[in-house]
Amino acid sequence: MQIGIVGLPFTGKSTLFQTITKTLLDPNELSKSEAHQAMIKVPDARLDKLTEMFVPKKKVNATIEVVDVVGLQKGDSGSTQFTGNFLGKVKTNDALVQVVRLFENETVPHPDGSINMMRDINSFETEFILSDLAILEKRLETIKKQILKTQDENLKRELPVLEKCYEILQTEKPLRDANLNKDELHILKTYQLLSVKPMLIALNFGESQIKDTGKYLEELVKNKLGPNTKALSFFGQIEKEMADLPEEDASVFMSDYGITESALDKLIREAYDLLGLQSFLTAGEDECRAWTIKKGMTAQEAAGEIHTDFFKKFIRAEVVSYDDFIETGSFAKAKELGKWRLEGKEYIVKDGDIISVRHS
User: Fold this and answer.
1) 126-189 falls under which CATH superfamily?
2) For the segment 251-293, what is each residue's pLDDT rounded down to a tens digit?
3) pTM of the entire structure?
4) What's the per-residue H, E or C state across the chain?
């Protein structure tokens, strides 16, 4: 899974990237055109506990790739230009985090001259919608001509989906919150449309604004948020300083500022929710590991995430929920009490299931 961090210049998006990835970028690197990428470990207290119990040779967290998407430029008028180079880089991301600036800093002025949350959010939305409209308009013209010539049934199925999406975009609404079904999303996947990507809006506040976060989030709930558009608040400069501290000192630092959850934990939690993801676990003396899967996956599909042969040669899955395992204290006791059970290939895996795959 790849998450792209986007934002207007001077919003703190590179600060967020450095904070959650614990990567220190040279100031000279920030102006370059290459995207900055890093893998982050998904924090999981359940995996930590299993590692403490089994003391395995190896502990493997689930991971997410994070990209600091660069390419936005200031135009001659001073406002931001959304270049084709930038939009092309955004297309490869599975989900987007848009960093929106709420903090004031006279030494680093906002590129559009003032702090305005909805204006900045809508500037991205408008560019994404215009990009999608251009792609669909061109494709619709091509499809209609091809259908007249070939009567291709696949194209006939595709046409009404693209027409529906084109009409939605013309109302200036993004496709991500249009309640498209799986078949429609499958057809759209080929085109890498921007407004269909799940969006997490990350509001970057200053130190003096800790008590103000609620009113801005409430405004977003009223005006912008949908099933695939969510929001969180963070304090870029404060959290960047915390990232350099030992864990114990960072906890004290957070408490002093009244911050209850780090930017990393918030981002992971909301990103998993947006993308419909969850984790299952494997545990033993050799390795304790968290695996990321889509919600609704079967035991056989989850087994395939461990190894492709496990999918092909799947027999049964031995399953115990994390809570039941912790309550019983061991696999042997879980089996004795009937908490450890055998499940077939159609079993729907639940978040936190501890699984052992039986295969031929």
Assistant:
1) Obg-related GTPase Ych/YyaF, coiled-coil domain (1.10.150.300)
2) 888 888 888 888 889 999 999 999 999 999 999 999 999 999 9
3) 0.89
4) CEEEEEECCCCCHHHHHHHHHCCCCCHHHHHCCCCEEEEEECCCHHHHHHHHHHCCCEEECCEEEEEECCCCEECCCCCEECCHHHHHHHCCCCEEEEEEECCCCCCCCCCCCCCCHHHHHHHHHHHHHHHHHHHHHHHHHHHHHHHHHHCCHHHHHHHHHHHHHHHHHHCCCCHHHCCCCHHHHHHHHCCCCCCCCCEEEEEECCHHHHHHHHHHHHHHHHHCCECCEEEEEECHHHHHHHHCCCHHHHHHHHHHHCCCCCHHHHHHHHHHHHHCEEEEEECCCCEEEEEEEECCCEHHHHHHHHCHHHHHCEEEEEEEEHHHHHHHCCHHHHHHCCCCEEECCCCECCCCEEEEEEEC
